[in-house]
Structures are given as C-alpha cells and as structure tokens.
Specification:
single chain; about 160 residues; alpha+beta; seven-stranded mixed β-sheet; two-stranded antiparallel ribbon; 5 helices; binds protoporphyrin IX containing FE; Cyt_B5-like_heme/steroid_sf; transport
Length: about 160
C-alpha cells in the first residue's frame, strides 16, 4: 500500500510539519504517497484512480456523474490523465471538484523530470539569447550611423 510519512512522532526535527526525504526532497508530513505500480492496480470501473498533476484521485463514485461520460475516465484509469484533463479545458468548478476525490500524491520517484517553466513555453536561456541579439542589433545600428556620419563629415570638409 501507499507509503505514509508520519507526523514527526519523536517530537524532534523540523517543527514546520515537513520532513526531509532521503532523496533530498522535503515533503509535507501526513501525506499518503503512492507509486505508479500501486496506482495502476486501480484501473477498473469498480475502482478508478487517476493521476492529475502528480496528485492521485479516486473517481470511482464520480464516474456516473462525470459530464464528459464515464468511458473517458475508465480508459485512463490507473494512469496519468493530466494531459487529457487539460486538453478538455475543464472549468474552475471541475478543478474544485477534484479535491473531493483526492487520496494522495504520486511518489516522488515516479514523477517525471522537473518541469521548469511549466505553463510557460519559453525554454531556459531563450530570453537571454533573445536579448543578446537585440543588443547586438542596436550596437550594429549605432556603429552604422556613426560610420555614415563620420564618412559624410569627411566628404563635406
Ligand atoms: C479527473 C477528474 C475529472 C473531473 C472532476 C471532471 C469534471 C468535469 C466537469 C465538471 C465537466 C463539465 C464541464 C466543466 O465544468 O469543465 C467535465 C466535462 C468533460 N470532461 Fe471531465 N472531469 C475529470 C476528468 C476528465 C478526464 C480525465 C477527461 C478526459 C479523458 C475528461 C473529459 C471531459 C470531457 C470530454 C468533458 C466535456 C463534456 C462536454 O463539454 O460535453 N474529464 N468534466
């Protein structure tokens, strides 16, 4: 079953309700973590779990209520449905509904690599290379103007 990180039973350690994991990550205490392997077992209409944004939801009771139909949820059962969930463009209401079905978090080891700039299409370093080109263009223009001015001055004198 899921791995529970208990609430600091010894009384020592950090007092801010967080514990450090062996992999250097700090995670909230008392949160239930599930591995992908465990989540995959909940892949049927009588037991339907989904991962959305690294959070795990038990949607078994919601299947019949889902305005988009139960099939789409069952198809994705036991797996990561983040992309399909986002592709549909679910409303804020739909996002708030998710909370009722929350059962825990995807285990840190099963999360995909860090997603820097999530929700932002710019790649790291892209904006700095863009500014470099802009500065080069400005410098080239200024040099061009100064040169033309210099040549013009020499011709007229
Ligand atoms: C996992 C939790 C989910 C919840 C709580 C949820 C909730 C909702 C709600 C409330 C709506 C009505 C429209 C809205 O308010 O956005 C909706 C529509 C819809 N959902 Fe979901 N949904 C979930 C997952 C998914 C997934 C994983 C898929 C796709 C594979 C999906 C596909 C759809 C579709 C296609 C509609 C559109 C129905 C229409 O416009 O006719 N939903 N969902």
């Amino acid at each position: 079953m899921g791995e529970e990180i208990n609430d600091n039973p010894s009384g020592s350690g950090p007092a801010d309700n967080t514990v450090a994991e062996g992999n250097g990550q700090t995670v909230e205490a008392g949160v239930q973590y599930y591995t992908l392997e465990e989540i995959r077992l909940h892949n049927m209409s009588t037991d339907t779990w989904l991962i959305i944004h690294d959070k795990v939801y038990d949607l078994t009771c919601f299947l019949e209520e889902h305005p988009g139909g139960e099939e789409v949820l069952i198809e994705q059962a036991g797996s990561d449905a983040t992309e399909s969930f986002e592709d549909v463009g679910h409303s804020t209401d739909a996002r708030e509904m998710l909370m009722q079905y929350y059962v825990g978090e995807l285990h840190m080891d099963d999360r995909s690599e860090q997603k820097p700039n999530e929700g932002n299409d710019a790649k790291p370093g892209e904006s700095s290379s863009w500014t470099t080109w802009l500065i080069l263009a400005i410098v080239a223009t200024v040099v061009g103007i100064v040169y033309r001015f210099y040549v013009f001055e020499h011709k007229s004198s």
